[in-house]
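USER: Please consider what follows.
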Amino acid sequence: MGRTALCPGTFDPVTNGHVDIIQRASRCFDAVVVGVLANPSKDPLFGLEDRVAMLKEAVSDIAGVEVASFSGLLVEYAKARGIGVVVKGLRGEGDFDFELKMAQMNQHLTGVETFFLPTNPQWSFISSSLIKEVVRFGGDVSGLVPPFVQDRLEERLAFGRE
């Protein structure tokens, strides 16, 4: 078996930036597991099953990609799956500062390494939180998320508009 990488996240919702990182990771590794985090301390807009389903649809045309959910420590999930590399996209210095500490802790805990991919500049300003905020106030996020995600966001957040 070849080298498998884990792309973790909350993906609430999945954006084109996420899809780009997953696609690029799939070219660097033999297989990619996209791990959707079930984090009880967060209050996501979409439930775990919805986030997994949207991701599966968003990456359905990328060979070698599996979407699964997990809870608990990322490194414990990676270890249980026999995955030794985590892939993280970096949008800027703030992401790097945060992710570097996480990478060092993950390596300390289980030996899992982190592979950083700089975000394509086309997507570097996008975050799931920002996307939700724009839609909440009636803004257009066409081209920033897959079309079916935009539809789901507009359905879910339509109550916030007059």
In short: The chain has one domain: 4-123. The chain is about 45% helix and 20% strand.
